[in-house]
Amino acid sequence: MSGLATVVRRLPQTNWTAARAMLRSEARLLARNPAVVIWTAILPVAASIILGAIPGVRAPSHALGGLSFFQVYQPILVFFAITLLALQALPDVLTRYREMGVLKRLRTTPVSPAVLLCAQLVLIFAVAVGCMLLMVIVPALVGASWPRNPGGFLVTYLLGAWAMLGLGMLVASLFHNAKVAAGFGSFLFFVLQFFAGLWWQRPEMPSWLRHVSDVTPSGAAVQGLVDTSLGHWPSTLHLVVLVVWGIVTSRLAVRFFSWE
Amino acid sequence: MPVIEVADLRKVYGERTVVDGVSFSVEQGEIFGVLGPNGAGKTTMVECIGGLRRRDGGSIRVAGMDPADEGVAFRSALGIQLQESRLPDKMSVEEALNLYASFYPEPHDPNVLLERLGLVEQRRTYFAKLSGGQKQRLSVALALIGNPRVAILDELTTGLDPVARREVWDLLEDLRGTGVTLLLVSHFMEEAERLCDRVIVIDHGRIIAADTPEGLAANVAADQRMSFSPSTSFDLGILEALPDVHGVTAAGERVTVTGTDNVASAVIIALHERGISVGRLRVDQPSLDDAFVALTREDVGARTEGTVAR
Predict the structure, then answer these.
(1) Cβ of B278: how many Cβ atoms within 10 Å?
(2) CA dist list (Å): A241 to A189, A224, B89, B207
(3) Which parts of chain A have pLDDT scores under 70?
(4) CA distance, residue A182 to nearest chain B CA (Å)
């Protein structure tokens, strides 16, 4: 039974007092269970700061097509954080809330459980943006370069975040068992990191593999972030890929989500 | 005017009819029991009434509204305590009540409710650290926080130890007379006997009996049962000869006699005449438990015969 579509239609009647109370409550719960956020945030943030602080890593490398190691890896790490949060933290908390009957209990009140989903999305997104800012600002302060096209960088990041959060919601919709959802989330995470170039950098991929990577949300987002850090605009292809992933995953998530 | 009116309610899952033409009505302020064995369709029925499931036939009005519309007014008029619904582990009692209070237009004061439910000392305790009884009381509090006209409480005391169960019953007794109508789903007859003004018994999705708890128990043609330890051994035939006695059995020094309403006095007098005294006497009235067993058994019997006849 998908009530989410009905909810989207009734959005204008939202009780904002309740929505604020819910957001505060979820933020408090997140602060009391900081492990998830710390684990997902610490590794990429620390790695990008360390990489940014080592001068040799900032030097252009021939093997990477004239880019520095930092320039290739910073976008991968920025996207690593949002992917981890969207595909692991988000489905984990939502499927657990469903298993515990939290969503069903909310259905019995005048406030829709969709308000709780939105509160979670907002929180996860806020944590991801916080990580992204740390990963951009701190390395720049210790000597690495700023993104040369900050506007384009931000747009690419937001579209990439949309696609990832949509995918995370879809995982939470399709899998009702928290453990299965977590397992599938991890699997997706590694696949997406592969296409993002975590182990095999995109400039070094054979061209057919790079073409595949171009149409994955992680490949498109990371390339868009690389392009914009160098001062270019992201290619239309990559933006379109991200928008399509965002629309398709969000629509499917709304279609298949159930409260119990 | 009734606050809940259900007429010919039907709910079908695939080939299976889970609720099969149920009709009843509940007055404002009543504590109304829905009894039945596990899998009888009780939860499905109240979830239709609570607007959590779509019905396949019949009509439902709760406080004059149709649950199928799921409007904000409906949700504010009705509080539901669901079976097996937990809260996040690290949410405190007070936080949960304040959060849920913010959902309603005219909520109860969380502090008053905390006091009434005896949870003042636990106000800062996390949900995961509460005892079973405290969790259930919090659950009742959440069903009542919106100041509803009707509260549905589903299997409230299942899984609780006897002490915790009585805590919850005391709380519900305190609610009597506050004007809130309670729809209590249970398979504990003792619970219904103690709390409910009226009950219906459901089996296989149909109402098989509707009465007060006392009325149900009285209507069952169950024997009275007495047991005792006689001062000396005697011939059981003395008792079997009495017209009020239907059966006599002895196990060790304990004698058990079943019979009519007068069986206890008839047996005691007959033994007294022979100089035998009756020790550790115990007499059991037919209870709602017996009525329930008799009713659901009859229902199964009727069904099997029906099948054979076809």
Answers:
(1) 17
(2) 18, 11, 39, 58
(3) 1-14
(4) 18
Of B156 and A133, the structure prediction assigns the larger pLDDT to A133
Domains of chain B: which residue ranges? 2-218, 223-284
B103-133 pLDDT, tens digit per residue, is 998 899 999 888 888 889 999 999 999 988 8
Phi, psi of B126 (to 5 degrees): -70, 150
On whether any CB of chain A is under 8 Å from the CB of B144, the answer is no
Spell B230-264 as b/e; 16+ CB within 10 A means b: beeebeeebbeebebbeebeeeeeebebbbeeebb
The verdict on B78 touching A (C-beta cutoff 8 Å) is: yes
Listed in sequence order, the residues at least 6 apart from B55 whose beta carbon sits closer than 8 Å to its beta carbon are B9, B10, B11, B19, B48, B68
Sheet of strand B2-13: strand arrangement = B16-27, B2-13, B57-62
Residue B182, H or E segment:
strand B181-186
What is d(CA B28, CA B32) in angstroms, rounded to the nearest whole number? 10
Q: Which two tokens stand for residue A124?
A: 């996860």
pLDDT of residue B142: 92
B50 touches chain A (CB under 8 A): yes
More confident residue, A8 or B297: B297
Domain range summary for chain A, segments of one domain joined by +:
4-256
ipTM of this complex prediction, to 2 decimal places: 0.85
Q: Maximum Cα–Cα distance for chain A, whole Å?
A: 62
The pLDDT tens digits for B69-104 are 878 889 999 999 887 789 999 999 999 999 999 999
pLDDT in tens, B285-296: 767 777 777 777
Question: Is the CB of residue B129 less than 8 Å away from at least one CB of chain A?
Answer: no
CATH architecture of B223-284: 2-Layer Sandwich (3.30)
> Across all residues in chain B, what is the average pLDDT?
86
Judged by CB atoms closer than 8 Å, whether chains meet at B86 and A107 is answered as no
Q: Is B86–A100 a contact, with Cβ atoms under 8 angstroms apart?
A: yes
Write phi, then psi, for B103 (nearest 5 degrees): -85, -20
Which architecture, in CATH terms, is B2-218?
A: 3-Layer(aba) Sandwich (3.40)
3-class secondary-structure state, position B178: coil
Residue B161 has what pLDDT? 82
DSSP state of A64: T
Using CA of residue A189, residue A193, residue A198, residue A199, what is the dihedral sign?
positive
Cα distances (angstroms) measured from residue A7 to each of A14, A118, A198, A258, B76: 9, 11, 39, 12, 17
Give the pLDDT mean for B199-224. Answer: 84
